[in-house]
Predict the structure.
Amino acid sequence: MKIKTILSLAVAGMALMASCSNIDENERFIKGDAITVGKKVLIEDFTGQRCVNCPKATEMIAKLHDTFGDNIVAVGIYGGPFGKSTTGKFYPLTTETGEYYNVKNNVTEQPYGAFNRLYYLADYQQWENIVAELIAMQTVINMECENTYDEASRQLTINVRAKGLDNVEGAYLQVWLTEDNIVNTQYMPDGKPNKDYVHNHVFRTSVNDRDGEPVTITKDGTTEKTYTTTLDSEWKAEDMDVVAFVFTKDGVQQVVKTRVVK
């Protein structure tokens, strides 16, 4: 049974209690290419710079990385309830697309995590159990992503390949850019702002349509997509990653994360 907002009655009860209010080309097929198999988990961390509990969720994500390594791909999506000040001014890390994702996912409390778009849960203390369950699942897609970056023009070329281990109906490909080591304000659990807080895996933009684009995934066939984009002048290319994933109505089928500059 697919679980969207409820993992179990007990977990759902805890999810209601854990919020900040209480304490963001062309397609072709190639045969025979070997791509490493491995189930990974996309964590969409809906967060905000005014969210006092969000640093605790970030600590949990760091713990998950320590435990599960590269099987975890986290993206901090800034916006939502705590993406702006009490006067309505947006914080620097809030983006228009991040706001769109918050609204689309009905985010009313933060921190709030989406796990392979199967489980949605505010209680970050339960996140480790969810990830352990998802990693044990089998993948039906293998993915690779190769990036070429030109420093002079700041132009980035992204090549994504997705090979089907089975036929996948209703597949969409999403390609995002994230950035680490961003120093900016974050409200802390003590209620005070930390202007020197280091934000990681921050969602910057979607390279393709913000809702993804349809792709054809067939057994033993490989779909390849190439994108070219120019990085914003304020972004540090050496701290950035490309996050690409394939999803269906049944959640994220596979995700891959690669550095912009190797």
In short: Confidence is low (pLDDT under 50) at residues 1-19, 21-37.
